[in-house]
Amino acid sequence: MSSLAGRRELRRYSRHLLIPEVGLAGQEKLARASVLVVGAGGLGSPVLQYLGAAGVGRIGVVDDDVVDITNLQRQVIYADADVGAPKAVVAAGHIRGLNRDVVCEPFVERFNAENARAFVGNYDVVVDATDTFGARYLINDACRLEGKPDVYASIFRFEGQVSVFLPGGPCYRCLFPEPPPEGSVPSCAEGGVLGVLAGMVGTFQANEALKLILGIGSPLAGRLVLIDALEARTREVAFGIDPACPLDGTQATMTDVAEMARSAPEPLGVAALAPDALDAYLADHPATRVLDVREPHEAILAAPPQSVHIPASVLEARLHELDTATEYIVACRVGAKSRWAVNRLRDAGFRRIRHLDGGLLVYGAHAVSFDVF
Predict the structure, then answer these.
(1) Of 304, 303, 302, 301, nearest in space to 278 by CA
(2) Structural domain boundaries of the chain?
(3) Where are the alpha helices (DSSP H) in the chain?
């Protein structure tokens, strides 16, 4: 045996060895393989643990963030004692403790245009466990230019999606040619996510990565699986190479990676109000209400008078509590989540709405008086 050197390894992976599609030869493929996991959060947690348990020989984990208490609801690789510590370091230590056969390399740095191709080029398979559009396009582009498979997923609230972008096949840009306008789609931090969904979708990613290494089954190339945890349903959407794709199209133009330019937010089409003008406006308009769409963990200070608090994560379910005849000033912590809420209210027929530019964090610095919320 070349990679599995003794009885302990044979016993450890015995359930793999019993599977004809894996067997000893497949387990040795896993031991020789390398996987880069970009992002050690909700998706990265199950991906890292299952790849480590499966015996993937070398795993790199890139993440420049630290563990926050709000992560613990879904990022199950961490514990209370890890709060404040670098995610990549903690995750790598956990994998080394899980399986001493595995080399797990932590990189406490941001995955960016300067290091993307070097990172990707050093591994056999790349798993995109990030949560921003910019990172997804960057990972896709680096993988395509370096000829490496990209195992993609994303999650939001109760819904997830998974696909695989293989060299020579359609890529992320073929599926999503352009990112949505800035502020039009709330992140998990803004809209919430069911904790267990991260495990469901992350294990789907780990499965796809293992299939690619082993050369078994049908990878999700040209197929996007949509997962609805609330209704316990999945469906599949097929897609192909976009002729206009700058990487794969008939006249491809991209020869290197670059950071995605942040598109300007689309105009909201409602009047804006500066945070330092809010108190005076409310005093002059006593019937006006501030619709505070912050999540409970965000709403610590600076809840202005005349407020109605409905978190963005439950706004759609509680729209019936609002009156279309009332004027609402929509506000959140920094002004991003509230943009989404304004658009949702307009779609629901609300017309007497304003937007608090800059958010309640700025208001807290200027407010003459505020309540602890």
Answers:
(1) 304
(2) 33-238, 271-366
(3) 7-12, 14-17, 23-32, 44-54, 87-98, 116-121, 133-146, 172-175, 188-191, 195-214, 278-284, 337-347, 359-366
Q: How confident is the model at residue 22, as a pLDDT?
A: 96
Q: Is the pLDDT of residue 259 over 80?
A: yes
What span, in angstroms and rounded, lies between the C-alpha atoms of 75 and 10?
Answer: 30
What burial letters (b/e) apply to 99-136, b meaning 16+ CB within 10 Å? bebbebbbbbeebeeeebbebbeebbbbbbbbbebbbb
Q: Would you state the torsion angle of the CA atoms of residues 307, 311, 317, 322, taken in this order, to the nearest 10 degrees?
A: 10
Reply yes or no on domain 271-366 having CATH 3.40.250.10: yes
- pLDDT score recorded for residue 313: 81
Predicted TM-score of the model (pTM): 0.74
Superfamily of domain 33-238 in the CATH hierarchy:
NAD(P)-binding Rossmann-like Domain (3.40.50.720)
3-class SS of residue 101:
coil
